[in-house]
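Troubleshooting entry. The earlier prediction with FE3-S4 cluster gave an output that would not parse, so I re-checked the input for stray whitespace and re-submitted. Clean input:
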Amino acid sequence: MSKKVFIKTFGCQMNEYDSNRIYESVSKIGYEKTEKFEDANCYIVNTCHIRDKAKEKVYHEIGRVKKNFKSKKKPVVIVAGCVAQAENKEMIKREPYIDIVIGPQSYHKINDSILNYTKNKEKEEQTDFDTMSKFNYFDKIRNNNSKVSAFLTIQEGCDKFCKFCVVPYTRGPEYSRPFNVILEEAKQLIDNGSREITLLGQNVNAYCYKEKKKSFKLSDLIMALENIPKLKRIRYTTSHPIDMTEDLIKCYESSKKLVPFIHLPVQSGSNKVLKLMNRKHTVEHYLSVFEKLKKANSKIEFSSDFIVAYPGETDEDFNSTIELVKKINFINSYSFIFSPRPGTPASHLKLIDNNIAKERLKLIQNELFKHQNKKNKIMENKIVDVLVENKIKNQNKYFGRTEYMTAVIFDGENNIEGKIVPVLITSSNQNNLFGEIKLKKRIKAA
Ligand code: SAM
Ligand code: SF4
Ligand code: F3S
């Protein structure tokens, strides 16, 4: 009987990509993926440390596993991801039920750690920043992901050191994967059936790979992917405003597959707060990037991340953020109350009163959601192109996304997964569009 592995994934898309690669790695030592955590012989929690009680969430999760396996054989319990990196040895000390702690740049060691543990019952903590060895290891394992929309990590780590952020400490310094290796992996994904690829990186537009006096940038990757016939859409995330270079902006004129939608976190609309955060860009710079992109392609829409109640943010600063939100009309954005992260420079700063923070979050979300609702409402009675991702379980409905990432649930027809189909939108809410497929023949007849 084969052994089973279950991974619970928290956090960003990079963790999702990593979890898939971990599944492929451990399959080489006989572990088969299971969707039921109760069946696991190896239980992995891939963690995120970006906000709030991340650490406590992990211990809570381990507690749940412990309870479930009380009267059964204990699985090998692994904590991976950014909490593992930040907490390392402390985790095994605090919760002896944990067997292996492994940080994001040590996943090439996961098979050996599991084998060592199962053979010798030796607990291990692996938290070196050995990004190159990790990718060299994974490059030899085929990426078998066959999702219509697949993630592909091209860059890891961050050298920007925004004062609030743990990422430079949990993912380490910036590293860009070799250009040809990325293209090879993209081809594997497309051969498996993927039709949309999202290029990932903590600072994806800082991607820069140098080989034989030539340097390859994100724009080179986009234009190379453009030439792969079966690929229909290209996305990338998350980008930093300071790395939105002219060559990348130009891709919005020359690429037909790059979607006209960009997630470009601004964090605040106040220059004073941006400086306090060490963001390295101003509001004016952000607006100039916005203008250039709109000029390159007027269909481009923006989404962003916002942090409210950063230490030192006054009502006036916050109002500047609201002004920026109104000016740009962001869609599909994220907003958070500042959360002090252990080990970051901002963790010692005086917090803004929690009621004020909550009020600011409510106000910014009202503004963001107001526009999002309006934007979705406008789509009603219109036909949009939807890349079909999957059939919804036990229903005769399909799920897909517009170019702008908006989720669409619609009545479809057989065998449309992986295709871009026209959908007539009949209703909407804040996050979704609902409709029915309209095949071209019928549209013409109507
Ligand atoms: N690299 C991206 C950038 O520079 O915009 C962001 C990566 S981070 C994983 C995603 C978002 O989490 C950030 O854009 C920020 O809004 C939010 N975030 C990070 N640290 C935070 C903190 N300490 N408190 C609240 N939100 C935080
Ligand atoms: Fe974090 Fe700033 Fe780096 Fe983004 S750019 S990952 S917010 S330190
Ligand atoms: Fe979280 Fe680490 Fe991603 S802290 S957001 S899982 S890079």
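This one parsed fine. Residues 11-12, 14-15, 48-50, 81-82, 166-167, 170-171, 202 surround FE3-S4 cluster (ligand 3) (CB under 6 Å).
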